[in-house]
Write a structure and sequence with these properties.
The structure is a single chain. The strands form three sheets. Strands 5, 8, 9, 10, 11, 12, 13, 14 and 15 form a nine-stranded mixed β-sheet that branches. A four-stranded antiparallel β-sheet has the order 2-1-3-4, with no helix packed on it. It has three domains: 52 residues, RNA-binding S4 domain (Structural Genomics Hypothetical 15.5 Kd Protein In mrcA-pckA Intergenic Region, Chain A, Roll); 91 residues, Alpha-Beta Plaits; 81 residues, 2-Layer Sandwich (Alpha-Beta Plaits), CATH 3.30.70. The protein has six helices and 15 strands. It is elongated, with a radius of gyration of 22 Å. Strand 3 and strand 4 form a beta hairpin. Bound molecules: uracil. Uracil binds next to helix 5.
Length: 234
């Protein structure tokens, strides 16, 4: 990472303030004064600012079990607490959510400060699959289930969208319980897909994003850092 970027992350300086401080000779890397803001800081370097050691928090990759009645945003509203404010974590303002869920949806949420990584999770170009466990208001009989599975597999028209949904996978576990896997993340997509099919979603839980499943040991509100192997899935 460039020294000016490192300085912004390690101490709360703007990029310009960091560049000025570096040019003035306020930073040393491994004991040497560095005045070039573009100097590359290696992962194991010892960086000092005004003779005190400073460190970045590094890039963070987190999974959370989102509870009901919380929102996927960086700040709370009057009605709901945000998932980020549920976490006791240093520098929460640097984090964002890679793929939001509605307030009444529970399950797997990924939180990071790495914009390129979250782009791979959410961008339609990567078609990363998301698995949802769905509870429906109306029971769906066996022959209707087949017809729904076929419609979803082809793609369905959603109200006010100009393109049909991408082919998706639907599996029924009972007349009112099914699993839907979609490779997009349009606004309220699952609820709108079932509305277009003449039903209503009354319970929604995200169980998987790509190959990454929600850790069963995480209770609602709990979170943990992803392992390096999990980060590398995206
Ligand atoms: N689709 C929805 O309708 N809601 C969600 O929270 C996620 C997907």
């Amino acid at each position: 990472m460039r020294l000016d970027k490192y300085a912004c992350e390690a101490i709360d300086l703007t990029r310009n303030e960091a560049k000025k401080a570096i040019k003035k000779g306020c930073f040393t890397v491994d004991g040497e004064v560095i005045t070039n803001p573009a100097f590359k800081v290696t992962a194991d370097a010892n960086v000092e600012y005004l003779e005190e050691q400073v460190e970045t928090v590094g890039q963070r990759y987190i999974m959370m079990h989102k509870p009901i009645d919380t929102i996927c945003s960086t700040s709370d509203t009057e009605a709901y607490q945000s998932v980020i404010s549920l976490m006791e974590i240093d520098k929460p303002e640097r984090l964002h959510i890679a793929g939001r869920l509605d307030a009444d949806t529970t399950g797997l949420v990924l939180i990071t400060d790495d914009g390129k990584w979250s782009h791979r999770v959410t961008s339609p170009n990567y078609q990363c699959e998301k698995l949802y466990i769905v509870e429906l208001a109306e029971p769906v009989l066996a022959d209707e289930q087949l017809s729904m599975i076929e419609k979803v597999a082809v793609g369905i028209d959603l109200k006010s969208d100009d393109k049909p949904t991408l082919p998706a996978k639907l599996k029924f576990n009972s007349p009112q319980h099914c699993e839907l896997t979609i490779a997009e993340g349009r606004y309220h997509q699952v609820k709108r897909m079932f509305a277009a099919l003449g039903n209503k979603v009354v319970g929604l839980h995200r169980a998987k994003i790509g190959e990454l499943g929600l850790d069963d040991e995480l209770e609602p509100c709990e979170w943990r850092y992803l392992t390096d192997d999990e980060v590398a899935l995206f």
